[in-house]
Amino acid sequence: MTSLLSSAAQVATRHRASSSASSLAAPPAPQHTNHPSHSPPIPTPTHSTNRIRSGSQSSSHIPFSTSAPSFSNLFHAGDRSSRHLSLESDQNENTSTSTLPQVTSLSIEFEGGTHVIIRPNRIVRGKVVLEAAERMHVTRIRIKFRAEESAMVKVEEGGGDNRGEWVHQVITTFFETDWKLWGNDSSNYSQSGWDDLEAGHYEFPFALKFPNVNYPPSMEEPSGFAIRYIWTAQADGPALQSGTKSREYITPYRPIIISTPGKGTSKKKCYTA
């Protein structure tokens, strides 16, 4: 009888295995990815223009738990997942807001950075970068290239009380051209339409071939005299109104120099400045 009571007590003191419950991991909030439509490339022999919109994110797959939750913990798990989902959505909104640019700007990035040198028959590659702080109405985006010679001289003129120094400046433009990287062509008989660009980061690659023509080399001397090869980018607004512009980028130009034959020689040699 005593052994039966002790065995019953042992059975009574055994605790039942409690079922462990873990909450189901909530998937992250969906991210909307808007890729602007591609536009025709620039009319150059070698080119590549693709408008790239950054900020796209792909939601990662989160595996679900294999242990089944109990009925009593199911409500707590739902509360935790809802709080987790709301916190994650707030974080995503803060992250997307912080990545947007504060000021709308336009810039040019050359392949090779600051070491790019222009030569005859050479291809210049790079991209125009647009940082849009808000929605923009854009007709087209262009890159402009020009070569100019600037001469400035200081002259003393007048006599007596009217005597003073005057600065005279003469600018001679060798050439000036532009290429459309994206948007609609201008027309003399109809108003060009525009597209809406949402706030974000855009890139417009380009590849432009310099003609096989010798122009004067770049120089910044003597004082008051300069020959410069200048690049700028511009985003035209509705009705081709002047919109956002980039700063001027000056790149050095080195022509091909052909030496004259010396005495006793009949061959010509080519050099680059």
Can you walk through the features of this model?
Residues 18-37 have a biased composition (Low complexity). Residues 110-241 form the Arrestin-like N-terminal domain. This is Arrestin-like N-terminal domain-containing protein. Residues 1-77 are annotated as: Disordered. It is a single chain. The protein has helices at 2-13, 71-99; strands at 52-53, 105-110, 123-132, 136-138, 140-157, 164-183, 195-197, 200-209, 225-236, 244-245, 249-250, 256-259, 269-272. With 273 residues, the chain is of the alpha+beta class. It has a domain at 105-144 and 177-215 and 231-253: Immunoglobulin-like. Strands 5, 6, 9, 10 and 11 form a 5-stranded antiparallel sheet that branches. The protein has a 4-stranded antiparallel sheet with strand order 1-8-3-2, with no helix packed on it. It has a two-stranded antiparallel sheet with strand order 4-7. A hairpin with a 7-residue loop joins strand 9 (225-236) and strand 10. The chain is globular and about 60 Å long.
